[in-house]
Write a structure and sequence with these properties.
The chain is α/β, with parallel strands linked by helices. Helix content is 35%, strand content 29%. The chain is built from 10 helices and 13 strands. The two termini are 40 Å apart. The chain binds adenosine-5'-triphosphate. Adenosine-5'-triphosphate (ATP) binds at residues 13, 16, 18, 36, 38-44, 80. Belongs to the ABC transporter superfamily.
Length: 302
């Protein structure tokens, strides 16, 4: 079942077309990546999804239909711009913001305390927001996003100000939420985080959908005919189906001829008695795919 259905949305600001016919669906309980370079239209798409902006055309169904006031309490949103009242003490600010999301004061207090423990903020509970570091403020905002236990979470750059320890903690929290059936849409430029966390993704560029689908399928689709092979000894010079071989730290990256398959190469190596520690099809990283797609569109558009 889909938690969000985005159909052919468009949005212009003056002559600038920020979103240009974007469609995708986010399944219930998945961790979905919303990706794209700066200015691609991600934040505008999120704002349309959350009914902050009306689209010029197209439609959005969220949690089974149009957005409503009641639904807002079932959603957690971490916006890109982190706006907390700077002069208020951390704990007071968090409890207050959680009551705005429908929690009673006493439940809000308990949850906030639990989350402050978990996020290692408890020692700072009496500090004003402006006295907290950037990373601490971001964790505080994540608490506001999550503490009312929303069924749908939309987070824009959740890791941007976090050190590796806090990044790991937030990733664990997101995985736990997913395991409980929470739907998560994550907008980020950090491709390795997407590779680690996301089931499916959409990549938009200049307002248009460039890639959409399962991460593993997208990587397979962009796989070059290359192998990574680690032989026990050396590699013969004339392996069947190999057009070039590059050696790096005992590992070879083999480029295949147009008609060869990985099986042809493996068969030849086995027949020649080459012992192998590793034999795998080289998969491109999401970073490489992102750059290829974005630069490719740039070249097409001139
Ligand atoms: N309120 C606005 N008024 C005018 N133009 C806007 C407004 N919001 C966004 N835009 C323009 O729309 C385009 C898409 O912006 P958007 O913020 O959606 O991109 P983004 O993918 O979130 O980028 P980033 O990764 O840099 O945050 C940009 O060209 C931007 O200048």
């Amino acid at each position: 079942m889909a938690s969000i259905i985005v159909e052919q949305i468009t949005k212009s600001f003056g002559k600038q077309r920020a979103v240009d016919g974007v469609s995708f669906e986010v399944e219930k309980g998945e961790l979905f990546g919303l990706l794209g370079p700066n200015g691609a239209g991600k934040t505008t798409s999120i704002r349309i999804m959350l009914d902050i902006f009306k689209p010029d055309s197209g439609s959005v169904s969220i949690l089974g239909g149009p957005m409503s006031e009641a639904k807002k309490e079932r959603i957690g949103y971490l916006p890109e711009e982190r706006g907390l009242y700077q002069d208020v003490q951390l704990e007071r600010a968090l409890v207050y913001l959680c009551t705005l999301k429908g929690l009673t004061r006493s439940v809000a207090k308990t949850r906030v305390e639990e989350y402050m423990e978990r996020f290692d903020l408890i020692a700072h509970r009496k500090k004003k927001i402006k006295e907290l570091s950037k990373g601490m403020q971001q964790k505080a905002q994540l608490i506001v996003t999550l503490a009312h236990e929303p069924e749908l979470v939309i987070i824009d750059e959740p890791f941007s100000a976090l050190d590796p320890v806090n990044t790991q903690m937030v990733k664990d929290i997101l995985r736990e939420a997913r395991a409980k059936g929470v739907t998560i849409v994550m907008c980020t430029h950090q491709m390795h985080q997407v590779e680690e966390l996301c089931d499916r993704l959409v990549l938009i560029n200049r307002g248009k959908t460039m890639l959409y689908g399962r991460l593993d399928e997208i990587r397979r689709q962009y796989a070059q005919p290359e192998l990574i092979v680690r032989p026990v000894g050396g590699l013969p010079a004339d392996v069947v189906g190999v057009s070039s071989a590059e050696r790096l730290n005992g590992e070879y990256r083999l480029r295949l001829t147009a008609s060869a398959t990985p099986q042809d190469v493996l068969r030849d190596l086995v027949q020649r008695g080459v012992a192998l520690e590793q034999f795998e099809i080289a998969m491109p990283t999401l970073d490489e795919i992102f750059i290829q797609v974005v630069q490719g569109q740039g070249e097409l558009d001139g």
